[in-house]
Amino acid sequence: MKAVFMTDRGKVRQHNEDNGGIYVNRSGQRLAIVADGMGGHRAGDVASEMTLTSLKGFWDQTDEFQTAEEAEGWLLKQIAEVNTILFEHSKENEQCEGMGTTVVAAVCTDRFATIANIGDSRCYILNESGFQQLTEDHSLVNELVRSGQITREDAEHHPRKNVLLRALGTEAAVEMDIKTITFEEGDILLLCSDGLSNKVAVAEMSEILKSGRTLEEKASLLIEQANDNGGEDNITLVIAEYYEGSESRMVNDD
């Protein structure tokens, strides 16, 4: 497996409230994370950074996952634990009241990838079946689309597009979506915050990921496209590609 992480403040925001990274456990399996923070004065970056730090700490103590059930159980347990940590912190620190974050996380092994998400940060896959979104946004606009009240085209410009129905850390308990897919040679996962998905069309993402560029070049180009299209939000992404060979490596560009 090879992977790259990149984040960018964008062209408008003064602070980057996104966080993310790629981490290797004791058996060499990888955890990819993207978290898009929100809240009061600078509290969004506190929420996303605490999420990243906590999950990394839990991941450092894990051994090899042999089955998808083990990976799913780990994500369910540890993300719920992070939710408690954030919720308690926001109650105990007035400046962090109401803080929260989206999270999309993927446990990547040589046989499968297990993805969990809360909020509207997304995971896509490029494989022999094409390019598709694996996660479902937990947003007001997506619920309106699902119920048939508006079209996907309407959703792109809806005035309440950024209203989330679920976030990590805003309630005492949170529900997450989780799924496992087969991860085969040549498959590519893209995890990203809405600073990318709101600004770069699916067709553009697919074209860039299919190109013969390096993962670093693909990541840079995706961020460049988001900024060229306005860059109103922070932009964060992880690209992970599975391949067989002796050159397996990890790249983590902060």
Automatic annotation (TrEMBL):
Catalytic activity: O-phospho-L-threonyl-[protein] + H2O = L-threonyl-[protein] + phosphate; O-phospho-L-seryl-[protein] + H2O = L-seryl-[protein] + phosphate
Residue ranges of every copy of the PPM-type phosphatase domain listed in the record: 2-242
InterPro entries: PP2C, PPM-type-like_dom_sf, PPM-type_phosphatase-like_dom
Entries under SUPFAM superfamilies matching the protein: PP2C-like
Requisite cofactors: Mn(2+)
Enzyme Commission number: 3.1.3.16
Database matches in Gene3D superfamilies: PPM-type phosphatase domain
Signal peptide: none
Root EC class: hydrolase
SMART domains membership: PP2C_SIG, PP2Cc
UniProt KW Hydrolase keyword: yes
UniProt GO MF annotations: metal ion binding; protein serine/threonine phosphatase activity
Keywords, alphabetical: Hydrolase, Manganese, Metal-binding, Protein phosphatase
Pfam families registered for this protein in UniProt: PP2C_2
Transmembrane regions listed in the UniProt entry: none
Record-linked PANTHER family: PROTEIN PHOSPHATASE
Protein name: protein-serine/threonine phosphatase
Lineage, uppermost ranks: Bacteria, Bacillati, Bacillota, Bacilli, Bacillales
